[in-house]
Amino acid sequence: MFNPYQEQISQLEAQIQEAEALLSGGSDPELRQLATEELQTLKNQKQALESAALEYENCLSGSQDSAVTGAKTNAIIEIRPGAGGDEAKIWAHDILRMYIRFAEKMGLKFIYIDDLVIKVSGKSTSLPEIHPEGQNYITAYELFQYESGVHRVQRVPETEAQGRIHTSTCSVAVLPEVASHEVSIREEDLEWQFMRSSGAGGQSVNKTNSAVRLTHIPTGIVVTARQERKQTQNRAIALDMLRSQLWEIEEEKRLDSIGKARSVIGRARRSEKIRTYNFPQNRITDHRSKQSWYNLPEILDGAMEAMILDLIPAFREMESVETE
Predict the structure, then answer these.
(1) CB 78, CB 127: distance < 8 Å
(2) What's the topology of domain 183-257?
(3) What is the H or E stretch that residue 79 is in?
(4) Could you say which DSSP state residue 181 is in?
(5) Beta pairing partners, 193
(6) In this predicted model, what pLDDT tens digit does every residue of 31-59 receive, in sequence order?
(7) SS3 (DSSP) at 245
């Protein structure tokens, strides 16, 4: 099995052999002391790399708990600013904040993967009205799955001196955390890069090569994970993200093959405009269900309960009609 650490381990093994040969043949006490210290340092580095290599193989084989138990339970939410310049970036962070606050209200956990990417984990016993049949809970993915698409805002930006209303957008992608056996990833199709993290996390993050950039060569998909302090954790997160995006591609093909199915609620494409947040009218309108709510500030502050209680049953009904 290909492992990105193997080359470094091989180089260390060669350096260890050289140090051992120097020790066995040298008579200079000072030189022997330096060689002894160097040998111990090399052995420590080799041991650390071997541990990292083992964790990498575990991640790739799917033995990590998150890969096995998180399928269709946890959700990876990625937000990208769209049209609107700086205001679009502010809007993207506003949407992310809304989701985080709502997740906290539902008793779900979240972690940052990147600046505008989070993973929401767990099951919520809140909102029993929308629990799937036979369940006394709703999963993070089931709760957020209909949020994918373009979210448009109409408001006066703080930087607007003339008081004019601007329209900005951001796109949301909600992907399930997919088990490793559901999506095949070949080791030779992966290109790993390790770098120092530039994000939050303190000096221990910024001084080590803990950040990970993973490229899937056949598709060109690039994912980045930099929030965790350990490189092995960021590698596991990057694999989860890649697996979810590859699943999204296959799911898109499947939905295309069934033609008009899901035509009303959309196919979770990033380019589909699903909702408008109109600040002057204090109104949020979902363009799929044609429903509106008039408590915009509260919803944007995380009070999404009423909106979710209206939307999920409506979408489930649409799905059941379209698949009949």
Answers:
(1) no
(2) Double Stranded RNA Binding Domain (3.30.160)
(3) strand 75-81
(4) G
(5) 213
(6) 777 878 888 888 877 777 776 666 555 55
(7) helix
* Rounded CA separation 31/19 (Å): 11
DSSP letter for 130, please: G
Q: Which amino acid is at 258?
A: I
Query: What does the radius of gyration of the chain's CA atoms come to, in whole angstroms?
Result: 25
Architecture of domain 68-179+262-322: 2-Layer Sandwich (3.30)
Provide the terminal-to-terminal Cα distance of the chain, rounded to the nearest Å. Answer: 45
Instruction: Give the closest residue to 232 by CA, choosing from 2, 1, 4.
Output: 4
Phi-psi domain of 127 (left: phi exceeds 0; alpha: psi -120 through 50; beta: other)? left
Tokens 């051992």 sit at which residue? 20
The mean pLDDT of 231-237, rounded to a whole number, is 81
Tokens coding 76: 């990876």
Every domain of the chain and the residues it spans:
6-61, 68-179+262-322, 183-257
Contacts for 308 with CB less than 8 Å, ≥ 6 apart? 102, 127, 130, 143
Of 276, 275, 280, whose CA–CA distance to 164 is shortest?
Answer: 280
Q: Which tokens hold the place of 231?
A: 């490189």
Q: What is the DSSP letter of 129?
A: G
Total residues found in the chain within this entry: 324
- Rounded to whole angstroms, the Cα distance separating 94 from 203 reads 28
What's the rounded mean pLDDT across residues 112-119?
88
State how far the Cα of 275 lies from the Cα of 278, in Å rounded to an integer.
Answer: 10
DSSP label of 131 = P
Token output for 126: 């809140």
Coil, helix or strand at residue 282: coil
- Amino acid at site 76: I
This prediction's pTM: 0.66
